[in-house]
Amino acid sequence: MTDIKKNLDNIKDNLMSCDVGRSITLVAVSKQQELTKIIEAINWGQRIFGENYLQEALKKQEQLKEYDIEWHFIGPIQSNKCKLIAENFSWVHTIDRLKIAKRINEAREGMPPLNICIQINISRESTKSGLFIENLDSFANEIEGYNNLKLRGLMAIPSNMISDKQLTIEFGLLKDKFEKMKKKYKNVDKLSVGMSNDYMKAIRHGANMIRVGSNIFGVRK
Ligand SMILES: *Cc1c(COP(=O)(O)O)cnc(C)c1O
Questions:
Q1: Contacts 24+ apart (CB under 8 A), 108-111
Q2: Distance (Å, whole) CA 121 – CA 114
Q3: By C-alpha distance, which of 74, 78, 80, 77 is closest to 115?
């Protein structure tokens, strides 16, 4: 068995073992990974891939265009990249500014609505992207009016520097907001939290979409 197959099986076993009574979507984060490894993951059944860097992603999309892949953009968004992101991805996880959302919405005209998550800066670190949670309600209301965006949920990158106790508090706030949004907005159904080193913890705290890179593909180049 290859490493990629082993790694994917291992993650699936872990997901089964949490038995949280909901399905978990695995986004395979393929940034800075070799094409052969990505193709291997595709051949083992993985269909959803996440990328952070637009130019790198566009190149891979071209090289992999014969495969039926759902591409997710999970990196920071510069305003001059909005058009290409809107045109070439099915999901964007990292919406945190109205100016960007508006541009992406305009660029998506004529295509099926783009699935988006609003990124929350849950740990309130100044170096991190994302909205502070208290600004979410008005932001989400605005986004809901954009016809070419489909608001699907929330995304966050919890700090790995903090105590379990603090993490539980942060996850709790996020889950609470997510549950409220699910009731308010008809398409909201995804809480995108959890990476290689914390996805089990994230799932225990309510995540149902995880973004895993190095645990599938190994260390990045
Ligand atoms: C790189 C990245 C991941 C995957 O990280 P791993 O630790 O390799 O699993 C997930 N989410 C985001 C936003 C990333 O930038």
A1: 108/148, 108/149, 109/148, 111/86, 111/87, 111/148
A2: 22
A3: 74
Tokens 């100044």, located at residue: 126
Residue 28 · residue 213 · CB < 8 Å: yes
pLDDT digits (tens, 9 = 90+) for 154-169: 999 988 778 888 888 9
Query: How far does the centroid of ligand 1 lie from the alpha carbon of residue 110, in Å?
Result: 31
Handedness of CA 139, 188, 179, 82 (dihedral sign): negative
Give the mutation target among 11, 92, 195 for probing the ligand 1 site: most ligand atoms within 8 A of CB: 195
Residue 199 corresponds to which tokens in the numbers above?
């996805």
The C-alpha atoms of residue 165 and residue 130 are separated, in whole angstroms, by: 22
pTM of the model: 0.96
Those residues with Cβ within 8 angstroms of residue 85's Cβ, 6 or more apart along the chain or in another chain = 54, 73, 77, 92, 104, 107
Side chain identity at 115, as an amino acid letter?
N
